[in-house]
Specification:
This protein is of the alpha+beta class. The protein contains ten helices and nine strands. Helix 7 (about 185-200) crosses helix 8 and helix 7 packs parallel to helix 10 (about 255-260).
Length: about 260
Amino acid sequence: MEKAFLYIDILGFKNLVTCKSSKLEKIFMVIDSLHVHKNDVFQTIVFSDTILIFNKNNEYPLHYHITYLIEYAQQLFYKLSMINVYFKGIITLKSFTYIEMQNLNAYYGEALISTYQDEKELKGFGIYIDKSISNESFIFDKIGFNEKYDYILLCQSLIKLYKETKGALPINKNLLKKTDDYFRIDEDLRFLREINYYRKHIKDDVVRDKYNYVYNIYKSLLPDFFDIFEKEGFLPFSINPNYVGRINPFNILAEVELRSNKL
C-alpha cells in the first residue's frame, strides 16, 4: 500500500556519538515529545539518527497526511534548532509495509529505499517533498529544487511577515499581535542568527556549504529584510526598535560551541 512517508536523517549524528555529546539525550527527548505520537493516524519508527513517519491507512485524504507530516517536521525543526541540531528530510508517496509481529516489527518498501538514496543527493538541510505530491501541501510555501523535489520553507512566520509588509522595515509592533501567523518570528530570527554565525566561522567546507545553502535560500526570498538583518545582526530590534522578543538575541550558541570545539 502507498503511504505518505516522511524520512528524516539527523545531521552530524556520528560526530555527536563519537564525542559523547550531551545533545544526544536531548535529541531523543525532543523526538519523544512530538505531537505525532498522539495522533493515531500515524506510525513512527526511530532508529539511531533516522526517523520514519507514515500514515497507517488511507482513511483520510492525501492532503491531510501531507500537511500533518510537514507540521510535524516543522515542530521537530524548531525544537532541535534550539540546540543547533538540524536534519534533512523527504516526504514522498510510495509503497511501504509495516507489520507488528509477535517478537519484532517488520518494515520495508520502495518509500524507504528511495528516500534513503535520494537524501544523500539533496543540498543543505530541511524538508524536501516529491513534486508528484507537492500540490497536496496547501499551507506551506515551497520552491523548486530539481525535477523531482521541491524545498519546503519552514520559517513561515518570517515569510508571511515579508509578504504582509512587502519587505518594508521597521513595522508597527502591534502587527505581530494581530494574528498568530507571526508567533515564531523570534525563533526564525534566532535560527538565522545561528546559521549565519556557522557559515562565517566553521572550518569544515562541507558543513559550511550546508549552512550557506539554506541561508541563501531565505536571503533570495527575503532580500529587503536581509539588507537590514545583515547590517544589524538579525536582531528583533530590526523589526521594530521597541521589539525585544522572547529570546535573548545576544546569546549565540554557535559561537560558544565553535569556540569550545575549536572548529
